[in-house]
Amino acid sequence: MSVPLLDVNAQNIPLESELQAAFTRVLQHGRFIMGPEMEVFEKEIAEMVGVKHALAVSSGTDALLLALMALDIGPGDEVLCPAFTFFATAGAVSRLGAIPVFTDICPICFNLDVNDARAKITEKTKAIIPVHLFGQSADMDAILALAEEKGLRVIEDGAQAIGAEYKGRGCGSMGDFGAYSFFPSKNLGGFGDGGMLVTNDDALAEFARVLRVHGSKPKYYHHYVGGNFRMDTLQCALLSVKVKRYAEYTAQRQANAAHYTEALSKLPGVVQADPSHCKCLSSQDAWLAGQEARIVLPVGYAHNTHIWNQYTLRVIGAGQRDGLRDYLQKAGIGCEIYYPLTLDQQPCFADLPEASLSGCEVSHRMAQEVISLPIYGELTEAQRLEVIAGIASWLSA
Ligand SMILES: *Cc1c(COP(=O)(O)O)cnc(C)c1O
To answer: Are the beta carbons of 305 and 358 closer than 8 angstroms?
Structure first.
């Protein structure tokens, strides 16, 4: 039996008749751009994540871009973001002529290292973009305190963390802006591209709304240069069908993660990351060596509600991760490396100033060690057992 990394049909096909009804409704009223379903969907998301304003936009990438534009980030400005994330986090910064400054990450939760961010602040630093990677919140108390102290704007990249929580607060709801993605592989996966920009600030919300439609207000009068950042009415209507079931989808992912952790931690050479342990790489290395660890399982901090966009292992030792990946692939078990290259290592950023690119050792190591397993909600028990058996047989091979 082969196990896919993700099976969107397993979630979507059971909703076929409801999705078709939503499609028919939009077809018949014909308001394909900013139709009534957009406002309904925006309200549903605002309520779910606990924010005042939500703007449906064309993608998670455009949500980030629009946030930066609304905060007037541009040429010469520096923006801190983690080196270990999806490209869009920094791509949006670069497209505006601003300079991404890459910070290192924590080897336990894979999120931005706030001490490193602090050390990289200059008088040009305007904003920080914490990413809630793999579905778990970054260290928001420390990030918000740093931002307050240094006068930085905070844009939360919640593309992988819609509905995740930090100390009871919704990921994406704590900064000046939060950005979400409905790319099909995200936890609230759509039927094409889509995203959401959220904020609690009335003035920022209003400005972002104007920028979403070419900076036009009133229509055909432009005080600003915006873009076309709208999400289709149809996409909103379809996603409203799924949003009603989102808590259930999340619970299934959480159950899968718990099952993996329970079963895998019984295998020799497998340990779970220890959040109480010192996070510096050398003491991590010593701790793992002491236990003869070959695989480190992910963990959610107790103050976080992790929504498991990915269940990501660390495979210790040069070449070991690639060995496991090849082994699983041969066995028909889906897996993926998020991410094989850190952002400071990307060719398109090679010309950034040295200060943008330095000091990302933990990120570099993680890019060599990580591998993500199938974790989607509809994964069956038999499939889960197949994944576990695959890892067990690689360990004993
Ligand atoms: C997916 C993703 C994005 C971009 O979202 P799109 O909707 O694909 O444009 C941005 N940041 C992170 C961390 C992501 O995972």
So the answer is: no
Residues annotated as part of the active site? 186
Instruction: Identify whether residues 135 and 255 lie together within a single domain.
Output: no
CB 235 less than 6 A from any atom of ligand 1: no
Nearest to residue 80, comparing CAs of 110, 111, 102, 104? 102
pLDDT of residue 277: 77
pLDDT tens, position by position, 354-387: 999 999 999 999 999 999 999 999 999 999 999 9
3-state secondary structure of 252: helix
Q: Are residues 70 and 152 in the same domain?
A: yes
CATH number for the domain that contains residue 288: 3.90.1150.10
Q: Whose CA is nearest to atom 6 of ligand 1?
A: 60
User: Could you give the angle at which helices 233-243 and 246-264 cross, rounded to 10 degrees?
Assistant: 60
pTM of the model: 0.98
Helices 202-212, 60-70: crossing angle, 10 deg rounding = 120
State the pLDDT confidence band at 179, using cuts at 50, 70 and 90: very high
- Residue 348 covered by a domain: yes
| Distance, CA of 42 to CA of 23 (rounded, Å) | 18
Residue 350 burial class via C-beta count within 10 angstroms: exposed 0-12, middle 13-18, buried 19 and up:
exposed
CATH number at residue 202: 3.40.640.10
217, 245, 273: which is the final residue of a domain?
245
Can you give the residue range of the structural domain that contains 330?
247-396
pLDDT for 199-251, tens place per residue?
A: 999 999 999 999 999 999 999 999 999 999 999 999 999 999 999 999 999 99
Listed residues 222, 245, 268: the one ending a domain: 245
Q: Is residue 3 part of a domain?
A: no
Whether 136 is in the pocket of ligand 1, judged by its Cβ within 6 Å, is no
Residue nearest to atom 1 of ligand 1 (CA): 159
Quote the ligand 1 centre to 201 CA distance (angstroms): 23
pLDDT at 280 (0 to 100): 86
- Both tokens of 248, joined, read 């259930």
Report d(CA 235, CA 351) in Å as an integer.
38
Total count of domains within the chain: 2
Closest Cα to residue 129, out of 107, 109, 162, 99?
99
DSSP assigned state of 231: P
Compute the Cα dihedral for 87, 92, 97, 102 and give only its sign: negative
User: 364 near 345, Cβ under 8 Å?
Assistant: yes
- 121 plus 251 within the same structural domain: no
